[in-house]
Design a protein that fits this description.
The protein has about 120 residues and is mainly alpha-helical. The protein is about 30% helix and about 10% strand. A 3-stranded antiparallel β-sheet has the order 1-2-3, with helices on one face. The longest helix has 11 residues. The protein starts with a helix and ends in a 20-residue tail after the last helix. About 20% of the residues are buried.
């Protein structure tokens, strides 16, 4: 059920707090897809949805989401309800695990072994 999905969403990823502590950011798309998946929905359901941003420098995840048809929804729980899903409880949201973003560049190479 939802309880199991919330606990295992994104598999072995990190919680939001762990991501912040590691200095990692969650992309808006990942933020919404992970939530919808934890609600028991197919992440593809939110293809075409976008965050409504007031300021591109915001560090917080978006609160308003815009559907492909242009309708606005306040928060991920409203998106879940619009898709016919049951929103998560606050406790379930705290346990959500997000996939760790891929590095933008390859890690530095180790120096060659001494000869």
């Amino acid at each position: 059920g939802i309880e199991e999905a919330a606990g295992s969403a994104a598999g072995s990823g990190l919680t939001k707090m762990e991501m912040a502590a590691a200095g990692l950011k969650i992309s808006p798309g990942t933020y919404l897809r992970t939530y919808i998946s934890a609600c028991g929905g197919d992440p593809a359901l939110v293809r075409g949805w976008r965050p409504h941003t007031y300021d591109s420098t915001r560090a917080k995840p978006p609160k308003l989401w815009v559907s492909p048809s242009g309708q606005r929804y306040h928060g991920r729980s409203a998106v879940a309800r619009a898709l016919g899903l049951t929103p998560l409880t606050a406790k379930q949201v705290q346990r959500l695990r997000y996939p760790v973003p891929r590095r933008q560049s390859a890690p530095p190479l180790a120096p060659p072994p001494p000869q």
